[in-house]
Write a structure and sequence with these properties.
It is a single chain. The chain is an alpha+beta fold and 393 residues long. It folds into 3 domains: 175 residues, no CATH class; 66 residues; 122 residues, Heat Shock Protein 90. Helices cover 66% and strands 9% of the residues. The protein has a 5-stranded mixed beta sheet with strand order 1-2-3-5-4. The longest helix is centred in the middle third of the chain and has 76 residues. It is elongated and about 125 Å long. Keywords: ATP-binding, Kinase, Membrane, Nucleotide-binding, Phosphoprotein, Transferase, Transmembrane, Transmembrane helix, Two-component regulatory system. GO terms for molecular function: kinase activity.
């Protein structure tokens, strides 16, 4: 949809420029032949060059520059001074140069466009200095040149501003697309992890029962032959191997980088807060500092809760102040992420993600609970209460 809208907008700009060139053609040709004394063929040719420059500036900027310059050269050399009409730059030529420079500034670097402006104005000043004096009132030539240079410069500035705005919008659209792809990828990973957990829960109980029964068969059934006992031992061994393999597959499904990097924990929180994508004030109470969580699963849960909360702040309240509090409230450890209201003018991102649900699942996995709600001042708070677990429990 976005690509279609950009295509429509580009076509609209091209149609507008072509229409401006077509409208300029008869005006420039007529004024050149009737007011400024240029021959009809020459006046028509100059008008066609100027109109083509206006129509083609976005799609063929170099060609537009050349044709515009030819039109300006022809106009300044052939236009005869009059007592009433602007001289040495007719109004039609002013419009052609202004539109061409504005379009050129949108598609080219501003330094290139400024150079073209300087060449056009410099040529006009040089030709005027060598032409006969103007028969009109004193100052008319200077006024015409000042208006010409000023209008052309203003068009250049407007074109540069529009070009910068377009570049910013394009970069913003690219960033939004990249963010959407990352959110989609993360949701896919979360879904795979959920399926892996369900698969583990369904299969592990049955495999454990098979392994226990097979391993204890030679002790529970004294009448077993030695061959039958060895078969039961082989079944128990295969069951243990299958459970180990299943745990490895589960670990791989939990993270794309599970086989390349260790799982993060509480000690990795400062590095998380120091990254450009996140940020916030970390507050740790004395009891937590003296006795941090030792269970790696709890540490991983704390890290993921803080990470996902900071991602939600960046998505929905970009620029808001964030405070992360780690404390102990026996018998639980408490992780609180609170953000202030977003700055004025910041628009919240699209909803519909699975961040809060994923954090609740992680808290429930270690026997804890998670609460998330808006605050009275317009901010948001996420609080996870996790039970103190003995490592390996």
């Amino acid at each position: 949809m976005k690509g279609a809208w950009q295509s429509i907008r580009k076509r609209a700009v091209l149609i507008a420029l072509v229409a401006a060139g077509i409208a300029l053609l008869p005006v420039a040709a007529t004024l050149g032949a009737t007011v400024y004394g240029i021959g009809v063929p020459a006046s028509l040719l100059i008008a066609m060059l100027q109109a083509f420059a206006v129509a083609a500036v976005v799609i063929r900027p170099w060609v537009a520059v050349v044709t515009m310059m030819l039109g300006v050269v022809g106009t300044t050399l052939l236009v005869a001074p009059t007592a009433t009409a602007p001289w040495p730059v007719p109004v039609a030529t002013m419009l052609a140069v202004a539109i061409t420079l504005a379009g050129l500034a949108v598609v080219k670097r501003w330094t290139f466009t400024a150079t073209v402006w300087a060449v056009v104005v410099g040529w006009t000043l040089g030709v005027t200095a060598l032409r006969p004096s103007h028969p009109a009132v004193p100052g008319a030539v200077a006024a015409d040149l000042i208006v010409f240079a000023g209008v052309a410069l203003l068009s250049l500035v407007v074109g540069v501003a529009v070009g910068r705005w377009s570049d910013t919008r394009r970069q913003l659209d690219d960033q939004r697309s990249a963010t959407a792809r990352e959110v989609e990828r993360r949701e896919l990973v979360e879904e795979r992890a959920r399926i892996a957990r369900e698969l583990h829960d369904v299969v592990a109980h049955g495999m454990s029962a098979i392994q226990v029964q097979a391993a204890s068969a030679r002790y529970r059934l004294p009448d077993l032959t030695e061959d039958a006992a060895r078969e039961f031992d082989d079944v128990a061994h295969r069951a243990r191997t299958a459970m180990t393999d299943m745990r490895h597959i589960l670990d791989a499904l939990r993270s794309d980088e599970a086989d390349r990097a260790p799982q993060p924990g509480v000690a990795d929180l400062p590095a998380l807060l120091a990254s450009p994508a996140h940020g916030g004030e970390l507050v740790v109470d004395d009891q937590w500092r003296d006795d941090p969580p030792r269970d790696p699963l709890v540490g991983l849960t704390v890290y993921r809760v803080v990470q996902e909360s900071l991602s939600n702040v960046a998505r929905h309240a970009r620029g808001a102040a964030v405070t992360i509090t780690l404390s102990r409230e026996a018998p639980d450890i408490v992780v609180t992420v609170r953000n202030a209201p977003p700055p004025a003018g910041v628009r919240a991102g699209d909803g519909g993600g699975h961040g809060l649900r994923g954090m609740r699942e992680r808290a429930a996995l270690v026997g804890g609970a998670l609460r998330a709600a808006p605050t009275d001042d317009g901010g948001f708070i996420v609080e996870a209460r996790l039970p103190e677990r003995t490592e390996g429990r």
